[in-house]
Amino acid sequence: MREVLKSDLVYNQLREAIRSGKMKPDERLACESRLSEDFKVARNTVRKALERLENERLVVKINGKGTFIAENIRGETGCFMAITDAESPLVSPAQYIYPGLQKRLADTGIRLEHCSIQFIQNLSVKDAYEMFRKNSVLGIFLFANSFTGNEPILSMLKAADLPVVIPHARSGDREIVDFAIMQTDERLAFGDGIRYLASQRHQKVATIFNAPLAVSHRDFSLGDYYEFLRLNGLDNSPVLTKFPENSRQHIGLAVKELMLGPKPPTAIACFSDFYAIHVYDALKELNIRIPEQVAVMGFCGYPGSVFMSPPLSTVDMMYENIGHMAAELMLNSDNWFGKERPVTVITPHKVVARKSTEVAMFQRDTLSGSPYAREYLSNNKVTQAFSL
């Protein structure tokens, strides 16, 4: 092996250890003779590799003390920037991805600054470019999705000529943006939740999706979803699918239609954990027990779902892990930034089974014949839409 290749090998391995966080800021490297032994190369080869790392400001050589990992491996003033919606609601995944991103970058000694989309879009493209340059922004995490291509932030970031990672993109975003994107296969993930309910012997699984104006529901068209239910041995009657607005009132009405209707389900799959919160409230009002009379499955992995009563089963998008993965993607941007083909990363998910879907004793054919439904109907005025 030629000497130059040996030097590259030492450089690449040390560089990867530094940028991955295996070697921490201010940590002292072994002396040249020890590194020479470890890599089985000449000291001059090690010296050349260390000079390259010093030129890139990844290490600092202090006379009489040794060579140390730089405090900020992107340079003394370099940083990354997270751009989010200043009005981001509690249900936004950005709230739960950000901590994982921040933690991973902190482990490597890199600063993470924060700025709102609203602030940046009030700047001109030139002023935004100057802001990034003056603050030594070396990469950007954009917390936005469902792009049309007309968003001002996209042209601003394109002009900045910096690596951009979108940690939580939607399925159609790849056709709009050419930044690095990360996305969950929502169709597969939601389907895994339904398949889990089917494995628990549920046949009548109701679904509470988002509002009906949505083009797709967790990347299912309605026709595809009904066929998916059929293929998994589940009742695919449209009366078991509801499309309420995300509010306690509307979701509550949808639950009553389901549970007091002609085909009361033994399980309810929710568009998100936040929908499931309102489903719990509606079932409590109906005196229907979870999971003894109906199981409930959430979707997304909201951290508070474990504290619901009973704890909510959910398809966990593993948001903190997405933040960690986004940081790793940015740390390795040299491998993809500026390349012809943009990077797309599919993030993992997992079904988390808790008490809300424990195998229950379903001893009634229809809810209308149960004492719980009779008691509710006798004590409450039910509109025609809910009549049995």
Oligomer: single chain
Shape: elongated
Count of individual beta strands: 14
Measured on Cα atoms, how large is the radius of gyration? 27 Å
- Main β-sheet: number of strands, strand sense, barrel status? 6 strands, parallel
Mean pLDDT reading: 86
Name the beta content range. 5-15%
Element order: H for helix, E for strand? HHHEEEHEHHEHEEHEHEHEHEEHEEH
Helix content: 25-40%
Structural class, from secondary structure content? alpha/beta
When the domains are counted, the total is: 3
Number of helices: 13
**Distance linking N and C termini:** 82 Å
Q: CATH H-level name of the largest domain... which superfamily?
A: Response regulator
- CATH hierarchy class name of the largest domain: Alpha Beta
Uncertain stretches of 5 or more adjacent residues: 361-388
What fold name stands as the CATH topology of the largest domain? Rossmann fold
Per CATH, the architecture of the largest domain is 3-Layer(aba) Sandwich
Strand ordering within the main sheet: 4-3-5-6-7-13
Features:
six-stranded parallel β-sheet; Rossmann fold; Arc Repressor Mutant, subunit A; disordered C terminus; single chain; alpha/beta; four-stranded parallel β-sheet
Can you walk through the features of this model?
This protein has 388 residues and is of the alpha/beta class. The chain has three domains: 67 residues, Winged helix-like DNA-binding domain superfamily/Winged helix DNA-binding domain (Arc Repressor Mutant, subunit A), CATH 1.10.10.10; 137 residues, Response regulator (Rossmann fold, 3-Layer(aba) Sandwich); 165 residues, Rossmann fold (3-Layer(aba) Sandwich). The chain has a six-stranded parallel sheet, sandwiched between helices. The protein has a four-stranded parallel sheet with strand order 9-8-10-11. α1 crosses α3 and α6 packs across α7. The C terminus is likely disordered.
